[in-house]
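Record type: ASSEMBLY
Status: queued
Input:
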Amino acid sequence: MKKSIAVDMDGVIADTETHFLNWYEREYGVRIGVHEIQGREENEMFPDKTVARKFAFTPGFFRSLPVMTGAVEALKTLMKSYDVYIVSAAMEFPQSLPEKLEWLKEHFPFISWRNIIFCGDKSIIGTDYMIDDHIKNLDFFKGTTIMFHAFHNVNHNHHQRANNWDEVLKLLVK
Amino acid sequence: MKKSIAVDMDGVIADTETHFLNWYEREYGVRIGVHEIQGREENEMFPDKTVARKFAFTPGFFRSLPVMTGAVEALKTLMKSYDVYIVSAAMEFPQSLPEKLEWLKEHFPFISWRNIIFCGDKSIIGTDYMIDDHIKNLDFFKGTTIMFHAFHNVNHNHHQRANNWDEVLKLLVK
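Status: finished
Output:
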């Protein structure tokens, strides 16, 4: 039987970091550099703490996310050896649910609806592996964790880090 | 730490059986009795096998489901001793996602968004208990199962059966 992997969406197969910085520049005319936000909490990436949540509640935000570099090919490769599930903590943003489904259908059409999970917290996910950028999800996971690099996790090192999808494949595919 | 329970929606906290029979009568002018469908597969509850799926894809179907008798009080009672998660295999019917969220907000406002999971198959759900009417979900579950009575499961007896919410409480609350 194949081992199973829970793959996060935002910050892992979707490049939310770039998207947030692009939306901020468009709305406020200021380009914040990637280096400026390293080590900050997600709600502290902008001077006004309410901005990121405002964007996340804006219709179209999740539908227009860029795909993370290498994610499409990496998931196709992983699916040869693993049962791959997309697990997104989307329930806080109800308007994101249909947008996330449409986004997956467009960019990852090879993922079946059977393998998609939208949840609140991820504590009851029982896969063998979890690839996620948030320690709040990884810390409560019972299986093997891979922490996907993100600005908000650079100072946390108690999970196996992968800086990009190539590094994930090196860890999981022999 | 509290034990966790995954509680199904359709057929467990929502009375889909009554709803299907009501919709059928409204659309086709024929009242099918509960006794007539006992032991049938879900897609065979009506003479035309496509009807149940047609209803399930109709906007408003899931939003207007009646609440299962006893479900509200039972979940409130269970939440005193357990972490209760609502786990619905909703991904096959994308239009149902916002409807199911609104329905839960109306009828089960005490359930946090953190405890709601919409998925495809349920094989990766890692709670301690699962209450579900479908053996396809219960058979692959690693924890303790409770099969909630439904017309389509009357001939299956390899899971602990509960005929109603009172019987669930007798099994789970000492």
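Annotation: Chain B has a mean pLDDT of 96.
Annotation: Chain B touches chain A at residues 4, 6, 85, 87, 91-92, 94, 97-98, 101, 112-121, 123-127, 142 (CB under 8 Å).
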